[in-house]
Write a structure and sequence with these properties.
It contains 21 helices and 15 strands. It is α+β, with helices and mostly antiparallel strands. The protein has two domains: about 375 residues, Up-down Bundle (Growth Hormone, Chain: A); about 230 residues, 4-Layer Sandwich (Deoxyribonuclease I, Chain A), CATH 3.60.10. The protein has a six-stranded mixed sheet. It has a six-stranded mixed sheet with strand order 8-9-10-11-13-12. A hairpin with a 5-residue loop joins strand 6 and strand 7. Helix 4 packs antiparallel against helix 13, helix 5 runs parallel beside helix 15 and helix 11 packs antiparallel against helix 12. The longest helix has about 30 residues. The chain is elongated.
Length: about 625
């Protein structure tokens, strides 16, 4: 059982990595080039291919089918970890998902007679190890960490995976199948993983739901610690032999309801119950007893339906701007399936296993929280001259759609700005590898932040500053009807007597009228008094009427005035200028566009000095 559990645990971690890379590269590569429905169709085909496990099993038998799919999963994981090229990543991660989802069905269905599924231990253990890895690597997946670190770690995992696989395949294997209630449990595993990734084990989401992380601090790491406490509680339930199915159902229901209620502190604490429910459900769903069968069609079909529901939920949640109804439906489905799946005595864990899981889940996030770099001491007040930077960080991806937060941090650090305005800030989206862009950049740069979510809790704009930020105001623009228009907004702070406004205007080329209304809302949010800056990815050319509204209000184009009027998009082929720094009551110097492909936008930097009356004031 030790070999089987290790084999299954590592394989599930590989599969989760493949899912993160596939959804991220598919989204980054084709969003805006194909309709959302086409992206969903591609994902449906890839995940529905898990049903081909029936064909693979019929042709190869238990041992060879597991060996072939496991080898394909391992090799493709190594390949997309090492190569990191946009279209290769799409193809390799898709192949890994196809192989991995088939492998999951096969390893569940093929076992020695009378043996419980290794997934009953492996699935919750994989969830725990994934939490540990995200805590250690500041939410960056291991497969997306710097290559010199990621490749050796993945190669070690592959060797352990193959070694444990050899031990498993050395035993006599036979196909097994459970009754319809056991199949229902398998159907719920895909939805349960989506609920976990988007809420129950998502540290950033738990923190934001509880009102933590809007104004600086290691909120995501705190959220991961709450997840760890919940996992520890769940492992205690399994070790004590308490009724697992009602415990899982109650924890999932109460945890989800309270977390998504967005009640300060209470929703944060509820994340622990949510995580406990996820862990217990992960142990219960695949644990039904099974008898011998001629093929693994029950497992393959159950998992395939679950993966289709996973894709459907992912599509609805993200395409409809962090839609929560899809997550509620899948949470309810998981609760129902947990209650329907037959009770199994094997769902009870040994104290040693439960203790190890609890220790890992609590100690590692706690240590990571303590060691997380904290923003340095903020100076008492800003000087008359300070440096500002406008930067769209493209959700943490570079110009070639590869996640590269390290290079983005280096790009900003080289410019040494005192204030940075960021757009396209994600803090834990599944379709962006679930990394926390803002938390990572704030820690690396040692700069406190204020954050303005515009799509759900985990996407929006932010301002980082070395000087105190006061009078924070968040403004939501009126939402235009239709899916082509994203919810947008502006964030306003005061730094050293200067009102600083950061925003991201609508991206549609034919939406000048929409952007004009957004600019009017932005200008109404400013009281018109004192010096002010507007920094934005405006998605508009310099001569556009929406920018004329800004300049007609007294703002000057500071970057253009001080030598930084070059094109900013795209960073690898700059053909248009859409990123700006406007100002009133200040003078500008040393303006320039930052030459870097760490994002698909180039940054814009200007030194600003309070002018005239403001310079001589108190």
């Amino acid at each position: 059982m030790i070999g089987g559990a290790a084999f299954a645990t590592i394989g599930i971690l590989f599969l989760l990595s493949a899912i993160h890379i596939f959804t991220a590269t598919l989204y980054q590569s084709l969003f805006g080039k194909l309709p959302n429905t086409s992206l969903a169709a591609i994902a449906f085909v890839v995940f529905a291919a898990s049903s081909l496990a029936i064909v693979t099993a019929a042709r190869l038998g238990p041992r060879r089918s597991i060996a072939v799919t496991a080898t394909a999963l391992a090799l493709t994981t190594v390949a997309f970890t090492a190569l990191r090229e946009e279209w290769l990543d799409v193809l390799l991660s898709a192949a890994a998902v196809i192989a991995g989802t088939q492998w999951l069905s096969l390893v569940h269905a093929a076992r020695p007679a009378g043996r419980v599924s290794p997934l009953a231990v492996a699935l919750p253990l994989a969830i725990t190890i994934d939490l540990v890895a995200r805590s250690l690597f500041a939410t960056i997946p291991i497969v997306a960490a710097p290559i010199v670190l990621a490749v050796p770690l993945v190669l070690i995992a592959v060797l352990l995976f193959l070694a444990s696989g050899i031990a498993v395949l050395g035993e006599p294997l036979t196909w097994t199948a459970s009754g319809w209630r056991g199949a229902v449990g398998l159907l719920a595993i895909g939805p349960l993983l989506l609920v976990a990734e988007t809420g129950g084990t998502n540290g950033a989401q738990i923190a934001q739901s509880g009102g933590i992380g809007m104004d600086g601090g290691p909120s995501t790491q705190l959220g991961l610690l709450i997840v760890g406490l919940g996992i520890a509680a769940g492992s205690l339930v399994l070790a004590r032999g308490w009724p697992a199915r009602p415990a899982a159902a109650a924890a999932l229901t109460a945890g989800a309801a309270l977390m998504w209620a967005h009640v300060p502190v209470l929703s944060f604490a509820a994340g622990a119950a949510f995580a406990a429910g996820i862990l217990i459900a992960a142990a219960v769903l695949p644990a039904a007893t099974a008898g011998e069968a001629r093929s693994p069609w029950v497992a393959a079909l159950g998992f395939a339906v679950g993966w289709v529901l996973f894709v459907a939920g992912t599509f609805v949640h993200y395409a409809y701007f962090a839609n929560l109804e899809a997550l509620w439906i899948l949470t309810a489905l998981a609760v129902i399936c947990v209650l329907l799946v037959p009770s199994s005595p094997v769902a009870r864990w040994r104290p040693v296993l439960a203790g190890a899981v609890a220790a890992l889940a609590v100690v590692v996030p706690a240590v990571a929280l303590i060691l997380t770099p904290q923003p340095g001491a903020v100076a008492a007040s800003a000087p008359l001259t300070f440096r500002v930077m406008q930067y769209n960080v493209h959700q943490g991806f570079d110009a070639f759609d590869i996640a590269d937060l390290d290079r983005q941090a280096d790009t900003i650090a080289r410019e040494a700005p005192d204030v940075v305005i960021l757009e396209e800030v994600v803090r834990g989206w599944l379709i962006d590898e679930e990394h926390d862009v803002l938390g990572y950049l704030s820690g690396r740069l040692g700069m406190p932040y204020v954050y303005d979510p515009t799509i759900g809790d985990l996407y929006g704009n932010a301002i980082l500053s070395r000087y105190p930020m006061t009078d924070v105001v968040r403004v939501a623009y009126p939402k235009e009807p239709g899916l082509r228009y994203q919810p947008r907004g502006a964030i306003l702070v005061t730094v050293g007597g200067v009102r600083i406004i950061g925003t991201h205007l609508d991206e549609n080329a034919d939406a000048s009228a929409v952007r004009m209304e957004q600019v009017r809302t932005l200008l109404r949010s400013w009281d018109g008094k004192g010096p002010a800056l507007v920094l934005c990815d405006c998605n508009a050319k310099p001569e556009s009427p929406e920018l004329t509204l800004i300049t007609d209000s007294g703002f000057g184009d500071l970057a253009l005035q001080s030598g930084g009027g070059a094109n900013t998009f795209s960073s690898d082929d700059p053909h248009e200028r859409i990123d700006y720094i406007f100002g009133v009551g200040v003078t500008a110097a040393q303006g320039h566009v930052v030459e870097s492909t760490a994002s698909d936008h180039k940054g814009v930097v200007v030194n600003v000095t309070l002018s005239g009356r403001q310079a001589g004031g108190p």
